[in-house]
Amino acid sequence: MTKTYQNYIDGAFVDSGSATVDVFNPATGAVLAKVPDSDASTVDAAVQAARRAQPAWEKKPAIERAGHLRRIAAKLREHRTELAGIIVREQGKIQQLAQVEVDFTADYMDYMAEWARRLEGEVITSDRVNEHIFLMRKPIGVVAGILPWNFPFFLIARKVAPALVTGNAIVIKPSEETPLNAFAFAELLAETDLPKGVFNLVSGLGRSTGEALVTHNDVGLITFTGSIATGSHIMQAAGRNLTRVNLELGGKAPAIVLADADLDIAAKAIYDSRVINTGQVCNCAERVYVERGAHEALVDRLAKHFKATQYGDPSARDDLHMGPLINQAGLDKVAAMVEQAKRDGATVVTGGQKADLGQGLHYEPTLIVDAREDMDIMRKEIFGPVLPIQVVDSLEEAIALSNDSEVGLTSSIFTRNINSAMQAVRELRFGETYINREHFEAMQGFHAGRRKSGIGGADGKHGLYEFTETHVVYLQTT
Ligand code: NAD
């Protein structure tokens, strides 16, 4: 019989109404489980639990809060293999990458715990005699964390760890596509001594559970990772209560390859950045601008990589580069974008259609040349294993085309010339630029997009402080 999960609210797994959502394995189509589609009253119970728990949590020394994060991290490591298996089954991630995600999640909890002794305010010079001005950083209160499906487990830590170490309580809503790993996280967390109500988990659809969370008056910060359309909607909904938002949205990362680049490094890094997680990553290379002199050699190298790509059901094999796409809509969108690109005059070098493996939502790894800046394939997020390439005649042209985008999350450049690399750094209007390496951020950096890629960011010191608000104290002594 299909298991039905229970929400985790106020330190207990509880029944929450009869509405449920089915969770599928995208590699087989099998229903894995049912999870609650939580309504507004359930969401309110979770928010109120967080609200009750938060003051005592805030009072604890930060180093004690950090201890809780470390104990959760240890639990995750104890169960690292089974956690990876859950991600493989519900998200379709290959086994190695799912394992990296679990291990990185545990490391991230530890990393944020390290900040406990480094949370600092400021002492500001006063204009008055014997006055002292202190700027303190304090928790916001109740944080709502709304997650996407593409790195579902890591995204829990990216919200929970900075929220908790700074003294907030949190309510998490995982994506309806991938909630099972979040329930596994809650089950392990429940085995630790974390005070009840500090972490709560409610599952459900965006229009029901998500909507109730983002319009709740007692939520102080909505930290959301997902699509631009949903981010824009959430920002409007948050406007009702003037709730703070932190939005990590979509990208359309350009990779610039100059004629002087090491093309073996460039091809491997761009390929890795494109097929990782079956192309379903916000910061992975979505479009290439290559200088004319390197075009043929780059395409040859990329084509070899694309043709050698192994894909299929990641539960069945551990030697794959890619699994399926997350759902039928995602697969149909990728297929439609490639068809449109062909009609617009682009040429498919390899791949170019849905892959029939008997089951699962697979798309052939696809390399496209003759792309132009007016094509949707060069302007809209594909979120699949499809790489379009456009020829340019100069670095300046590549930078101008890269910047001519409504999004600005990540970018990369491949060159042996330090001057060209630094010109790109000066002129690219993106939150991140990778030079001669694949697109993948570090936990101590700051992952933040420009334009419609988001508001605020995550990771490192700057990401941590997004979970705090300031309190300035003027102390007059005699
Ligand atoms: P999505 O916007 O469809 O869903 C994300 C979450 O929002 C889900 O939990 C969903 O249930 C919820 N949601 C939907 N409607 C809602 C509403 N009205 N109110 C509240 N919540 C609602 O995104 P997705 O398909 O899960 O994720 C893919 C997108 O995420 C891509 O565009 C990708 O680029 C982006 N992404 C960005 C980053 C980043 O760091 N910038 C990281 C990962 C993914």
What does this structure look like?
With 478 residues, the protein is of the alpha/beta class. It has two domains: 7-249 and 453-476, Aldehyde Dehydrogenase, Chain A, domain 1; 253-442, 3-Layer(aba) Sandwich (Aldehyde Dehydrogenase, Chain A, domain 2). The protein has a seven-stranded mixed beta sheet with strand order 14-17-18-13-12-20-21, with helices on both faces. Strands 9-8-7-10-11-24 form a six-stranded mixed beta sheet, with helices on both faces. A three-stranded antiparallel beta sheet has the order 5-6-26, with no helix packed on it. Helix 2 runs antiparallel to helix 4, helix 3 (80-91) packs across helix 4 and helix 4 runs parallel beside helix 5 (152-165). The longest helix has 20 residues, at 40-59. The chain is globular and about 75 Å long. The N and C termini lie far apart (74 Å). It binds nicotinamide-adenine-dinucleotide. Nicotinamide-adenine-dinucleotide binds at residues 146-150, 173, 175-176, 205-207, 210-211, 214, 225-227, 230, 233-234, 248-251, 282, 381, 409, 447, 449, 454.
